[in-house]
Amino acid sequence: MFAPDASRPDTGAITAPDAALDVQCAAGQQSCAGRCANTQSDTMNCGGCGVSCAAGQSCVMGACRSDCPAPRMQCSGMCIDVQTDNMNCGACGRACPAPANAAAVCAMGVCAMGACAAGFADCDRDPSNGCEVDTRASSAHCGACGTACAAGQMCVMGACRLDCPLPGTRCGAGATMACVDTQTSVAHCGACDRGCAAPANAAPTCVAGTCGASCNAGFGNCDMNAANGCEVDLRTSVTSCGACNSACRAAPNAVAPRCMAGACVIECQAGFGNCDGNAVNGCEMDLRTSAANCGMCGRMCAAGANATATCAAGACGLSCNAGFGDCDGNAANGCETNLNTSATSCGMCGRACAAGASCNSGTCMAASALNNPFDTAANFPTGWTRVNSGGAIASVLNAGCALRGAQGLMPEADMVFRTTPVVGAAGTRASVYFRAAAARAYLVFGISGTTGFALVGAPNTNALIWQQVTNITTGPNYADLATSAYTFTMGQWYRLEVVFDGTSTVRGNLYAANGTTLLVTLTRALPSVPNGGVGLRAFGGMCLDELEGVAR
Q1: 113 has a pLDDT exceeding 70
Q2: H helix intervals, 261-405
Q3: CATH class, range 369-550
Q4: In the chain, what are the domain boundaries?
Q5: Which residue, 74, 293, 298, 511, shows the most beta carbons closer than 10 Å to its own?
Q6: What residues have CB less than 8 Å from 245, skipping those under 6 apart?
Q7: 512: pLDDT confidence band, cut at 50, 70 and 90?
């Protein structure tokens, strides 16, 4: 029968009841489950016995890492230091055999014999037979190599003596005479000279005078047949990995499972990764498309300005936001070009507008006379009209309202408008800057007769509004058509823009002070977009400046 715990073969000497044969490891190594391990580099015992690194990780300075630096090697999906690993010494799968009564060690990629187990010694200096002498019972090497007992004496517990104390039995004669416990001695089990045979991959045992065996570390008697010994290598068996009948299971997106050093490991299919370290859900991450794990676990793609990060075929890329392009081919600065406004890349990278033309919503527009900085009274030529309180046009000019240049516009509830040039046809546009205050700014367009429409920036109600304007020439009235919420910052400049996409659709855009960063859009389908003049209105100390656009 097989005893549940292992013991080492001896010559039959009586041993102290607590004299268990501990594996003594070389300096820098620790005994873990019966084998010596370097806890600074062993992936199965990283930082301490039983601390196993995830598949694909290595143990560096006692901590699990995702890379595999030299002199480590990828062995069955694990990063192994083949210079020190007893199961992969010098190469993957090259296990160091355990010498008799000694620990196996791997040093500089070469298998060697470690320290002898307590009570044994390598007296012949031949590592091939391990620590062959039991110094507790050898009359020729009693207590130490070369210490022989006198004629008629025997070695008991490493000391020469004439008698054989109970429960010992004197066996042999002359130099082979020894005091043995026939209840436990594998060389004299139950009686003198009745030795116990060692089955395959097992050490013989003697319990209560009956022979048995204990499996060597890493092997198991899984068929419970004593005749063929410990027939299963638990270090590599996929059906009995680490323990009998503990099978490794197939995992999603992984190749056939493998057993290495008594632990199931998964090897991912090409393009997949076990990024959460959980073997149960397999290689859960698609490294070909995951922007957070692109090409390898943990490699996150950077989005860049005006773009969304993408991963294709394991390589990071960019998907530009609508209206932007990566025209310089530099992913580091994202999609740096505004295709809606760039005269050198209008609508697409490299499409330049002709000299004097501008880019409006990705379309090149010819220059027009609709440009007015309001710097002097001369900026109000013939054709401008002021309604509500009347008075000279120049009275609305204000140096404190200048965004650029000398002056800006402060209508103070009046409207100033002109009927030419005409905006409202498909492809035309108009815009004006305003400085936010607790009031409203109006960009009026399509003025024909006494009616028109207005795009209103309303910081006082935090909204962008479409309005219909009536009775323009004598006392305008304003009716809301559509509203989009937006929270303004008082004292900050913004740009209002109306863009005519077709004969019945107009887009209202609100931009930041730079005039290009789009903050909110409000599109309005009108029964018919009137072609007509432009107008401006504000109140509550609101400032306007830089009227510009493309007219018909």
Answers
A1: yes
A2: none
A3: mainly beta
A4: 369-550
A5: 293
A6: 222, 239
A7: very high
